[in-house]
Amino acid sequence: PGEAQKIDRLMEKFAARYIECNQGQTLFASADTAYVLAYSIIMLTTDLHSPQVKNKMTKEQYIKMNRGINDSKDLPEEYLSSIYDEIEGKKIAMKETKEHTIATKSTKQSVASEKQRRLLYNVEMEQMAKTAKALMEAVSHAKAPFTSATHLDHVRPMFKLVWTPLLAAYSIGLQNCDDTEVASLCLEGIRCAVRIACIFGMQLERDAYVQALARFSLLTASSSITEMKQKNIDTIKTLITVAHTDGNYLGNSWHEILKCISQLELAQLIGTGVKTRYLSGSGREREGSLKGHSLAGEEFMGLGLGNLVSGGVDKRQMASFQESVGETSSQSVVVAVDRIFTGSTRLDGNAIVDFVRWLCAVSMDELASPHHPRMFSLQKIVEISYYNMNRIRLQWSRIWHVIGDHFNKVGCNPNEDVAIFAVDSLRQLSMKFLEKGELANFRFQKDFLRPFEHIMKKNRSPTIRDMVIRCIAQMVSSQAANIRSGWKNIFAVFHQAASDHDGNIVELAFQTTGHIVSTIFQHHFPAAIDSFQDAVKCLSEFACNAAFPDTSMEAIRLIRFCGKYVSERPRVLQEYTSDDMNVAPGDRVWVRGWFPILFELSCIINRCKLDVRTRGLTVMFEIMKSYGHTFAKHWWQDLFRIVFRIFDNMKLPEQQSEKSEWMTTTCNHALYAICDVFTQFYEALHEVLLSDVFAQLQWCVKQDNEQLARSGTNCLENLVISNGEKFSPAVWDETCNCMLDIFKTTIPHVLLTWRPAGMEEEVSDRHLDVDLDRQSLSSIDRNASERGQSQLSNPTDDSWKGAPYAHQKLLASLLIKCVVQLELIQTIDNIVFYPATSKKEDAEHMVAAQQDTLDAEIHIETENQGMYKFMSSQHLFKLLDCLQESHSFSKAFNSNYEQRTVLWRAGFKGKSKPNLLKQETSSLACCLRILFRMYVDENRRDSWDEIQQRLLRVCSEALAYFITVNSESHREAWTSLLLLLLTKTLKISDEKFKAHASMYYPYLCEIMQFDLIPELRAVLRKFFLRIGLVYKIWIPEEPSQVPAALSSTW
């Protein structure tokens, strides 16, 4: 390799090694920055310390030169300034080697001969000077002093004075004289003038002379090319010679030269008969060209053929034309033109960029014709790309910046043939470039493959898009081992294809994507880490294409498969350094691996239809459950922020039906899954996420969706039952406060005051805690016999059809609040005593009453499985306050017959008026169970006084209320409640029983007047017998005289 390539390889290796050894640094975005900066330091050293450079680079110029090298951003000015100052003070140079030479001993004779030789030399030189001076004086007749040019730079001002008259002289000579010798001298003069202008960087003068050559070539002139003579052909040859000899200095003059070469190629084709059909206007082209003169204007006017095209060509003119351009098709000219392109490898770094830029400009002019675009220059662009691909990376990057932009435009050309040629050329170049491989932390491949991404994004032609996909697939198949930063472009192309509506394109792209993820990643995962996020995002886009559900499901499976790579190769992710250098090594697995997977799954959930988003949701929580043990606490916080996006109101569908479906399915599914994950990883999560989970449960309960509201309370129950034994007092405080908040916000106070005519005022006055703008109708059953059923009528009933929508909306929200109240009562009961315990206890009381004993043979095995023993008295008192408030509200509603009638007429129609009997009885039953359990708990002896006061008050009010109830069905609903109250009271000690018996005695006497069921009468009988024993109204002489029902307490 040459010296430049050696330096390039050293700089590449240095930059890669520097980034590898300085992983903590944040100054350089990638190894590319270090590579370019190293070159700029070499250039600065040469500029400041080379004696051949007169105009030294300033600090401002150096800073300007280094703009945008840090991933399109600037390095700090202070840093570049310090580099400049350091290099200015001390140049970078190789250590000098000391040569130890042994001076030879000079003899007197040798010294004498040396002195003699010098003396003779000086004498001879002096004599020559005198002779020359005399000769010059003899022939000189000018009296003005003559200044001898002593430096090369003296040429510049002299040429600046004479270039205009010289150009005029040469131009007139070429234009007016057909003598071959005169033309030859004029062309040689122009060639030398171009040379001088190039050497001294005189752009104006250079451009003027080159334009003159181009004009006299007749290739770009307005005059007809049929007038071409030998001098014009010699002009073309001179132009080619200038391109060969002065290519490094031509700058913008390349435009004229390359334009002439392009027109020369067209003239050669016409001269050899390849395109004579255009001139004769035969066939379809004749119609377009003769009628509209389109071809003459577009393609041939530059050659001066417009008059021939429009007027027709006779055989004599055609023969003359072919003879004129015949020499331009000679082997020597063709070879010379080719040498311009093959010799582009000898152009320096700046010249090659100018050459490529103007070649691309000429190519765009060639392709501008809508009917007959030419691809001569485009082909040459491909060729010079091959020739110059081995240049140092710094130069090649600048070249490809121009060529890549050109391919972006050509690949989107409306002419499909042109676009196909461009894409195929890109493919060939890319395959060649990828063979070279890429060092770590560089981005050359990403820049090189970017045109594929641009074409895929901008070109909507199915043919071209299909071709792009196939090209990328071929690259992946043959060059996967060499691809590094190029993976980003590959996944970007497939990302564009993923949202396509063409099944063939989607299928082809997905096959390759699946092959990459399932096979290539297994062997080349370290090289693809930087693009891992892009791969997952690409799969997410495939999953979100609703037109291809099978592909969507398979894409989700592959995302799940990606989790396997992250789990099995965490060290590779930790050790990889790139743009995330600021990320702590311990978090790189999360940032680079898990977060993209889980985030894209959340996007699938938020964007896709039901079956796909359900699958995405399932996979998301499968990943959490399978790999959550490896997650750090702060990772979980980021993760749950993603998960909670599922419930974000701003992201929910706007259509009411879709929103309802979303809440009933996706939100519902997610809620249970969250609680499962929270339970599985409780130790890691409760400190950082319990409050957020409770807040989310409250959000669900407050929505206008019955199913979601029920699920919210069910999940709260499951969460507490599963983890309650691990709760600290502080967590129990938070849990009880959560239930308290739900209770307070869901008590439907407006039920007591609502009137159809003044609904809005009533709602405003009572501060309804429902955002009516977010609420919709929801179904609720009317029966109240089991949990999960409402106490009010169904709002979808036909009776609602005539009601105003606002009324329906309000009443539906109130119904859901009633459901939540009932669900929450049951939740508290299940949490404290464990699910189904209370039902078994009620069954036991009924059997005991039937058998006339206090304890039936039914034993509740789950007695100690509830959370009762883990809760303090204060926590239980909080829950009791909620239950009592709920009971009071439902009791007030059930007693307000007038209001119930208003609601019934407004739409709550059914077999009977609306009621809250289930809420009234279940809230009181739960309250009594908790109080009686605490009342006999030795561990809560300190609270017995308060418990007794609460118990006496609650029971007395309950019995007093029962007496006032007029409805027989209402009293029947209280039967199990009275059984519970009396049975629990009968089981307490005699001392405690006295306080209760004295308080309840008058109420129980009143109750006896009602038509009670046999079981309740049996319990009342036991109660009065117990009173007789405790107060010694009668004293049995022998134990056998005590009724069996009271033998256990006697």
Automatic annotation (TrEMBL):
The gene is Arfgef2. It is found in: Cytoplasm. It comes from Mus musculus. The keyword Cytoplasm applies. This is SEC7 domain-containing protein. It comes from the Eukaryota. The keyword Cytoplasm applies. Residues 1-90 form the SEC7 domain. Its main location: cytoplasm. Pfam families: BIG2_C, Sec7, Sec7-like_HDS. Gene3D superfamilies: Arf Nucleotide-binding Site Opener,domain 2. Keywords: Cytoplasm, Guanine-nucleotide releasing factor. GO terms for biological process: regulation of ARF protein signal transduction.
